[in-house]
Amino acid sequence: MSAITAYPISPRRFVPANIIVPPYAGNMGPEVYEGSEVQTPDTIGKMRLAGKIAADALAAGAELVAPGISTDAIDAVIHEYLVSHGAYPATLDYRGFPKSCCTSVNEVICHGIPDARPLEDGDIVKIDVTAYLDGVHGDTCATYFCGDVSEESRLLCERTEEAMHRGIRAVRPGRRVNVIGRVIESFARRFGYGVVRDYTGHGCHRAFHSGLIIPHYDTVNFDTVIEVGMAFTIEPMLTIGDYHSHVWADDWTVVTNDGSRCAQFEHTLVVTPDGAEVLTVS
Ligand code: MF3
Ligand code: CO
Ligand code: CO
């Protein structure tokens, strides 16, 4: 199994004039979000639509995953799906990110840039899509198998998805957000998996990354009390080996230091009186 390396990146994709572009696109970074983490019913209604489009775009892109297909081709399908459904691909020009989704293969933890590398039999590929529609975001990611994947990798993916669902089920008003990391890390530990700490879940609604941090590891920090109407992501990244990472010279691609594989699943949710409603579903 050879290490992932950088391949050429295609020219910037065209966004039709009817698509409303978020205020941060093309800037060095978004402005600091000063609003509430608790969203109004009107905003939550809009987020259901953005969440569905993100989920459907992800599914459309995932259908392509097969040996020989480039992650750039997956990006093209996701871009077309989003803009043809009226949404802006939130990662495009976000802090200078050049593409309409993130594609992170094998030991790439997250923020991989779609490029010309042909997927290989046995790869695992994380596809992360964020739709911006009517002023709100829906952010979702899943890990897909390319051809015949080893049992070790398949188990990593299945257990990472289960870890995400355990995190979602731990959400309840009155608890602190670090309960999410506590349940995820205790599940991951059973299998000896690493839990990535440097990239976290986040408040996600009118702001893409609001400033609220949702840890996936066990910590006494991040003790914000969960309230009805808060909207945020849960997006654990679990590694077969050590979770420590570094970033490529492209300033985006995050890889494990030990080269071990990583899986990730992500949903955007809103807190309800008795738990959470997942918004990034079809
Ligand atoms: N969708 C990613 C997340 O889950 C963020 C990607 S930002 C990018 O938070 F610039 F890398 F695209
Ligand atoms: Co996210
Ligand atoms: Co995401």
Could you explain the architecture of this structure?
- This protein is α+β, with helices and mostly antiparallel strands and 282 residues long.
- It contains four helices and 15 strands.
- The strands form five sheets. Strands 1, 2, 4 and 5 form a four-stranded antiparallel sheet that branches. A three-stranded antiparallel sheet has the order 3-12-11, with no helix packed on it. The chain has a three-stranded antiparallel sheet with strand order 6-10-13, covered by helices on one side.
- A hairpin with a 2-residue loop joins strand 4 and strand 5.
- One cobalt (II) ion binds next to strand 4 and strand 5.
Order of helices and strands: HHEEEEEHHEEEEEEEEEE
Main beta sheet: 4 strands, antiparallel
The portion of residues forming beta strands comes to 15-25%
Shape, please?
globular
Q: How does the helix and strand content classify structurally? A: alpha+beta
Cα separation of the termini:
35 Å
Share of helix, binned: 10-25%
Blueprint (SSEs and pairs):
Blueprint: H1 41-62, H2 71-84, E1 88-89, E2 102-105, E3 108-110, E4 124-133, E5 136-145, H3 151-169, H4 178-189, E6 194-195, E7 201-202, E8 213-214, E9 231-234, E10 237-239, E11 245-247, E12 254-256, E13 262-264, E14 267-272, E15 275-278
Antiparallel strand pairs: 1-4, 2-4, 3-12, 4-5, 6-10, 7-8, 9-14, 10-13, 11-12, 14-15
Helix pairs in contact: 1-2, 3-4
The chain binds 2-amino-4-trifluoromethylsulfanyl-butyric acid and cobalt (II) ion (CO) (2 copies).
Structure summarized in a few sentences:
This protein is α+β, with helices and mostly antiparallel strands and 282 residues long.
